[in-house]
Amino acid sequence: MICKAFLPTPALREYVECFQIRHFQFADNTQLPYKPYAPRPEQTLAFYPRGHEIVEYVQGGSFLARSRSQLIGQAVERTNRHLGSSDFMIILVNFLPGVLYRITGIPCYELTNTSTDAESIFPEINYVNDRLNSTNDYREMIDIVEKFLLELVKSIKRDAHPLDTVTMGLIAHPENTSVIQLAQSSFLGQRQFDRKFKERMGISPKFFTRIARVTKAFRIKYHHPEMDWLTIAMWCGYEDYQHLAKDFQYFSGVNPTTYFFEDDKAPEKLFGLKDSSL
Question: Between 1.20.1090.10, 3.20.20.70, 2.60.120.10, 2.60.40.420, what CATH number should domain 2-158 receive?
């Protein structure tokens, strides 16, 4: 079993934050767990070499079975990620801010809160999927994905923008960066900043910042479970616990404590593993 992050090769580090491999094998008669997933500030490419994933959109009550590779835009509502088989593997490519827009040329607001069959965007991924299905070696799988990405970025459709660097700072420190300061840092007026941000990240900068703050709060609790939520709220720039709880309720549908306990039953926890993406 594995739940591990891998750094990309140096030639990809201006495009990819990291790769994630999660592989779980359960007995056939086991009731398969799900992963509660409040929105995070991320855009990803996902491969499913083993089994499949069924995504439950909690707010709308709908379910979507994902194909064997998916481009996943910025989420704005909670999902529950259900394992579709007892032998399940996912490889995630976590793109750096702006990269999904740069490699596809698609305004990212068209991908917000949804996922798209990656083969419909990049037909050559069909061959990548076939190769991933034919090996059991994790390092070889990463190499296969990296080779595809190295070819992909050779024909990148859009240039990098200062806004991308600003967005990385926002993810790291959402508690002390105002939208106006971000706009000034990226050399844009406010209206143009908002438009370009939605084009590259899929949602408004203010909404993105709320997601980044909730994610940071949960990450702190995940790695420091002894910390109380009020202290975490203060660290993340909230006025008090109630404001943190309000954002948690909005994005996860439950209060922070309940969401933390739900996550404690996620697939990786049953094997004594940590969520390497946090």
Answer: 2.60.120.10
- Beta strands (DSSP E) in the chain are 2-6, 16-25, 34-37, 44-50, 53-57, 62-65, 69-72, 79-83, 87-95, 115-117
Ramachandran assignment for 105, one of left (phi > 0), alpha (psi -120 to 50 degrees), beta (any other): left
Q: Per-residue pLDDT tens for 53-81?
A: 999 999 889 999 999 999 999 999 999 99
162-263 placed in CATH 1.10.10.60: yes
**Distance separating alpha carbons of residues 244 and 237, to the nearest angstrom:** 9
Map out the domains of the chain as residue ranges.
Answer: 2-158, 162-263
Q: What is the pLDDT of residues 194-211, one digit of tens each?
A: 999 999 999 999 999 999
